[in-house]
Design goal:
This protein is mostly helical. It is 67% helix and 0% strand. It is flat.
Length: 69
């Protein structure tokens, strides 16, 4: 996550570094040991994951009649 308006070259560089870390054997082994789901690769994949989570959890919030604060 970066602030809105972050220059694309900065976003691309961070995305490249994040993907490199997320796909490393060390990270994969750590996630497997801690029973954590793998991280998505790249900014677009992370954005899609966040949109899906927002939609899924939003339905639960509505069902529970939780009011925004």
């Amino acid at each position: 996550m970066v602030p809105a308006g972050t220059p694309k070259p900065v976003v691309d560089r961070l995305s490249t570094l994040f993907t490199k870390i997320a796909t490393s054997e060390e990270t994969k082994n750590f996630l497997q040991r801690t029973a954590t789901d793998p991280l998505p690769g790249g900014a677009e994949a992370m954005a899609a994951l966040l949109r899906a989570d927002h939609e899924r959890w939003g339905r639960y919030v509505k069902l529970a009649k939780i009011e925004p604060q």
